[in-house]
Amino acid sequence: MKKRKIGNLTVSEIGMGCMGFSHGYGKVPETSYSIAAIRAAHDYGCTFFDTAETYGREQFYRGHNEEIVGRAVEGFRKDIVLATKLHISTEEYDPEGDIYNVLLRHLTASMRRLRTDYVDLYYLHRFNEAIPIEKIAESMGRLIREGKIRGWGLSQVDVSILSKAHEITPVTAVQNLYSMVERDCEKEIFPYCIEHHIGVVPFSPLASGLLSGKVTAETKFGTDDVRKFVPQLSKENLEGNRPIVELLEEFAKVKKATPAQISLAWMLYKYPNVVPIPGSKNKERILENLKASEVTLTKTEFARLEEALGTMEIHGHRGINESQQHSFSSHWMKK
Predict the structure, then answer these.
(1) Residue 329: its pLDDT value, please?
(2) How far apart are CA 70 and CA 171, in angstroms?
(3) For position 328, what pLDDT does the model report?
(4) Start and end of every NADP-dependent oxidoreductase domain (predicted)?
(5) Disulfide: which of 161, 193, 249, 284 matches 157 by Cβ 3.0-4.6 Å?
């Protein structure tokens, strides 16, 4: 796979989100299958794997996903970029204390589960409004200087938060929601990140399956499935967003690709600093998404896509301004 730079890190131009092996998309596969799927992604050429300490709820435990990823990548750990995230509760924060010790405690536990002595990219999962982002940035800088992490990032932030953090300790990557139907990042995040050499790592780049064309109004979501909360996937919004799916299907037919691959190829063409991390618990789907790197849009094809998308109304919107106190993910974070 072709490579891209996010901050000071070099990664495959498409990464892999590993959350689905632990929760969020219904029944999870057997651990052996999950490990094999991660290794298959690496065999294909993926060198960028994303997890978090909070991935592992319902029938599993906090840290479950990190343990799976750690087991899967142990044999080629030095050849990849490993990203994980921490969630700091308000109860852990002492305004008179050193927040560094809190970060270090979380990081040490994550490294143990990941079977590594360093983390390449350490994100603050959602910023906590009770904790000054500047203090987090200072502590991340110390972790970098100590060699415990190589870079750090933020998730679901706008430029006002990003710039405050970046001025203290340069940010490596921003992991925000971005896709054809969630384009808030285009207003300020991408321009700021390109100017300051920060990577943008879109999660849910396929809009939780909407842009694959495989989620329909008849799709049923189980108890442990975040998709039932995704705005674009309500029955009425699925119908409203159908023209976008049809547009992708049209291009996919011409390019001998899938709608999902066209969607990923579109953002890869559009921004040099974007590295999407589509997530799936299905090995075949994971490899299909990675193979979007083999789909090359021409200048004319990209322009046609952009023009058509510009005429289409988007139904359902989540946005990127999320904190721990005001987050789409708070339902899962609190468990």
Answers:
(1) 55
(2) 24
(3) 65
(4) 13-308
(5) 161
- Kindly list the distances between the CA atom of residue 215 and the CA atoms of 182, 219, 244, in Å, as whole numbers in the listed order: 17, 6, 13
The DSSP code for 319 is -
Q: Is residue 328 part of a domain?
A: yes
Q: Output the CA–CA distances (angstroms, integers) from residue 32 to 50, 63, 72, 114, 248, in the order listed.
A: 18, 17, 9, 16, 34
Got the DSSP string for 224-262?
A: SBGGGG-GGGSHHHHHHTHHHHHHHHHHHHHHTS-HHHH
What is the reported pLDDT for 54? 92
- pTM (2 d.p.): 0.94
Edge-to-edge, what's the strand order for the sheet holding 119-124?
16-17, 48-50, 81-86, 119-124, 149-155, 173-175, 199-200
What domain range is 27 assigned to?
Answer: 3-208+270-294+320-333
Burial class of residue 333 (count of CB atoms within 10 Å of its CB; 0-12, 13-18, 19+): middle
**List of the chain residues with pLDDT < 70:** 57-60, 328-335
Catalytic residue among 55, 122, 178, 271: 55
The count of structural domains within the chain is: 1
The reply to whether 278 falls in a domain is: yes
- The residue with tokens 């300051």 is 196
Please confirm, yes or no, whether 55 is among the known catalytic residues. yes
Q: What is the DSSP letter of 270?
A: H
CATH value at residue 133? 3.20.20.100
**Measured distance CA(281)–CA(283) in Å, rounded:** 7
Q: How far is CA 133 from CA 124, 126, 136, 196, 328, in A?
A: 10, 11, 5, 18, 20
> Tokens 């940010």 label which residue?
171
Q: What local confidence, expressed as pLDDT, does residue 325 receive?
A: 85
Burial class (CB in 10 A: 0-12, 13-18, 19+), 319: middle
Any domain includes 306 = no
User: Within a domain: residue 44?
Assistant: yes
